[in-house]
Amino acid sequence: MKELLSLEAVQAALGGFGPVSQLRWNRIQVATGIEKARDAIRSAYEGLSCERLIMMGTADLGTAFQLTYHLTGLHRTVISIRIEIPRENPSVPSVHDLLPPAGIYERQIHDLFGIVFRGHPNLARIILNEDWPLREYPLRKDWKPVKGTFYGGIMEVK
Amino acid sequence: MKANHGGETTLCTHMSLSQRLAAWARLKSPWITIFNSGACNACDIEIIATLTPRYDVERFGILAKGSPRHADILVVTGPVTRKQAPRLRRIYEQMPEPKYVIAMGACGGRGGVFQGLYHVLNSVDDVVPVDVYVAGCPPRPDEIINAVVETLRIAGEDLKHGGREWRTKQQVTPAEPAQAPETGDTAEAGA
């Protein structure tokens, strides 16, 4: 069994991308920028052998979207690479070529938050129903169902 | 042929022998099919418990079928998500007449804990006409058996009345609205 990564090791490998902090005994967070996220993920992959994507979490902070890539490897340390995305015209480079499972998460996040992942080969609907109206993102905090809009299901009144 | 109870004496007058045989067989051995319209699987587990030897509904002739085209009763578990609603409608339309629908659990009735969310419809009744609701989260297997028995009672009543129209609510044309009293009520409403 391999040892957990120390904060110093992560600081040495990913410190150039942004502030590194230890959130839990096995979880280390790196806060970085949108354009540096791909390089940070590649460095974590190659330098820290984080070859496994646990999940991509997104939260709507009200002022911005917070996107976190949770990576781990055989050392069982979770490296959370966190970026903040502005609410107007949210757009992030896709990482589906570095981490293939990220493609599914990116489709879900695009469905529910409307974040565009540049370079994704097929950013189609995956989780909402097919007849969901365009440009309605239900997990955004400021989203409210518009009265009179058809959100899918059965059209006619029985 | 002498009918053995009241309901069938009326049937005998207008049904052929084959129709009477089919009606008898349908009431004695209903075939059910199960449709998960977005449930958390608790209701499905209870239905499995109903079908397996502990409760063993096959001794009553209730048989679970894989295809809706062979089934008389559709058991819908869970809230109807917007994605599943057209599929539920299509499943229902594939069933042969006469067909009956049981909506299972709190979610099947009014959405349960999912009520009002952006991705669910209010009720199974918005998609297909429901005959029997089963309360509970999830309902116990004996309640499911009771619901099927109740559905069979309704089916027998339908046979007596020659269709399901007797159960639909009468369309009451609204009467002329009464003249609102011209007293001080309007002032109160405005304030």
Written description of the protein model:
With 158 residues, chain A is α/β, with parallel strands linked by helices. Chain A has one domain (7-118): Beta Polymerase, domain 2. Chain A contains three helices and seven strands. Chain A has helices at residues 7-14, 37-47, 102-113, and strands at 20-24, 27-31, 52-60, 64-72, 78-86, 91-93, 116-118. By secondary structure, chain B is an alpha/beta fold. Chain B has one domain (31-164): Rossmann fold (3-Layer(aba) Sandwich). In chain B, 39% of the residues lie in helices and 11% in strands. Chain B has helices at residues 6-14, 17-28, 42-51, 85-94, 105-110, 141-161, 185-190, and strands spanning 31-36, 63-64, 73-77, 100-104, 132-134. Chain B starts with 5 loop residues before the first helix and ends with a helix. Chains A and B meet through loops of A and helix 4 of B.
How is this fold's topology laid out?
The complex is a heterodimer of chains A (158) and B (191).
Chain A: H1 7-14, E1 20-24, E2 27-31, H2 37-47, E3 52-60, E4 64-72, E5 78-86, E6 91-93, H3 102-113, E7 116-118
Parallel strand pairs in A: 2-5, 6-7
Antiparallel strand pairs in A: 1-2, 3-4, 4-5
Chain B: H1 6-14, H2 17-28, E1 31-36, H3 42-51, E2 63-64, E3 73-77, H4 85-94, E4 100-104, H5 105-110, E5 132-134, H6 141-161, H7 185-190
Parallel strand pairs in B: 1-2, 1-3, 3-4, 4-5
Helix pairs in contact in B: 1-6, 3-6
Name the features.
heterodimer, A: 158 residues, alpha/beta, Beta Polymerase, domain 2, 5-stranded mixed beta sheet, two-stranded parallel ribbon, 3 helices, 27% strand, elongated, B: 191 residues, Rossmann fold, 5-stranded parallel beta sheet, 7 helices, 5 strands, 39% helix, disordered C terminus
